[in-house]
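Page 37, top half.
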Amino acid sequence: AAADMHSKWQCCSAFLLLLLQAGVARFHGNPSILLLQAAYMIHVIKDTRAARTQLQLASSNLPGVIERYNIFKALEELKSIRETGDRGLDLMAYVEFQRNFRACVKAHKAALLAQRAFWRSVMRDNLKLSDMLVAFRAMEATEQTAILVYKRVLDRYPQGNGKLLKIWGRFQEWVLHDPVRASRSYAEAVKRGLGDTMLNLLGGGEGVDGNAAAQDSTHKVDEKVDGIVIIDAAGAILLVNKAANRMFGYAKGELEGKNVSMLMPQPFSGRHNTYLNNYVKTGEAKILDSERHLVALSKDRTIFPITLVVHCLSGTGKESIFMGVIRPSESTDPTATRVWATTNGIILCSDARFADWFGMSPQDIVGRPVSTFGQNPEKLEKWLLECAAASASEDAKGTEQAGIGAALTHKHLPALEVNINVSYGGTATERILVSKG
């Protein structure tokens, strides 16, 4: 029986290997396929050297945010197998590494800026000794601070990390002016086998112990389009991917450390921290793992519609880590247009088609009551009040109110006859009316 089981295992292993090889041939250089092959080598055939090679190939083929996290996780797993046999790694370790890495970069940058300030002070035509001494002391202070930060982080990761060792080498070369020690750090970074792109991380990934819904969601994320924002239980942004930065109009690094409420208009931004506190205290989740139609606030203070799914990736209470997947809210129906409004009928934003259909600019639309677009505003306002009253229940989320026919005013042409339907977005306490006509 044991021989028969072993034979079946060999057949299954060989078939899986054949599938992976076919996938690599069909999708050459695809990071996801390379990650699957690396996982096969780690868990099935126990070939860690070959797995490391596959992970290096994956990291050099422009992996996405989640793929970069999974590469990081797999490399840490290989390291733990080599050292202790312990295969555990959670998202908290990943996020903690990113914090430490950013602390090194920040201290490194401060030291370089202090050096620049010093040399600028000595290049002035009217050189004052007092100014030069101030600049020199500032340069020494930032240099010592950076050394302490680097030592603390390097002690935290005694086995070394390629990316970390590389920037430490640059610090030794360009700030400490010690090319000998810098060359040793560079050599050790190469030895660790992590390429330049390995930890150039902008976003989060799948929770190791996350629930099935969260894990399933990460496989459906299109990282070139969908924004990913990872926050802690206090609402502080830990990681953001490129798509999220682009969607909200922020540059790389601008959002990390800020409160996520800055991405929301009022009244959502003012109440978001309360929602988080309630979850931390009670453990009762009201919006997790469900799709919500909401509005967001860009850097230039423009409100735009989104679809949001939030998952708890790891931890409980104050140690919770959340991932939000943000998708632009787009209609696939060319015969319909949509506006997003508060429960009292004030328009928050609209799609581009609405402005085109009614000959108006977005500035003419935002902030106006929906009823003012109707030829019979009293009738339209009464119907909207009924919709708002029906939206009070949590069960209303995703449902649609019976439609109404109305004549809407065009800026230049005769009124347009349309049929208006309302669906409910937002949260149970802060509803949004999504009008479709």
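Page 37, bottom half:
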Amino acid sequence: MQAQFTDERDWDQFHQPRNLLLALVGEVGELAELFQWRGEVMEGLPDWTDTERTALAHELSDVLIYLVALSDKCRVDLTRAVLEKLQVNRNKYPVEMVQGSSKKYTQYRQ
């Protein structure tokens, strides 16, 4: 769907990895602005208005769109990469060593 959107507008010429990464960073900044100066935000966002939730959904969507486009341009199978990374993290953070702790993996090595 996004590829079709881009193709229809002849924007692929601008969507090289560097440009996509910079656009992604910009969108993450816009996402961060929604949380800036709010203090701690409770799970489920109970104090947010419908308008704020819609803005959040749009910014999260922009981040995802650029992330997927970047992975596509870099020929990274994002689904496979995520599964591999989860396994790497399982190995770095075994349950019996890290449960209930937020320490970095380097602090657990003996």
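Margin note: The chain has a mean pLDDT of 93.
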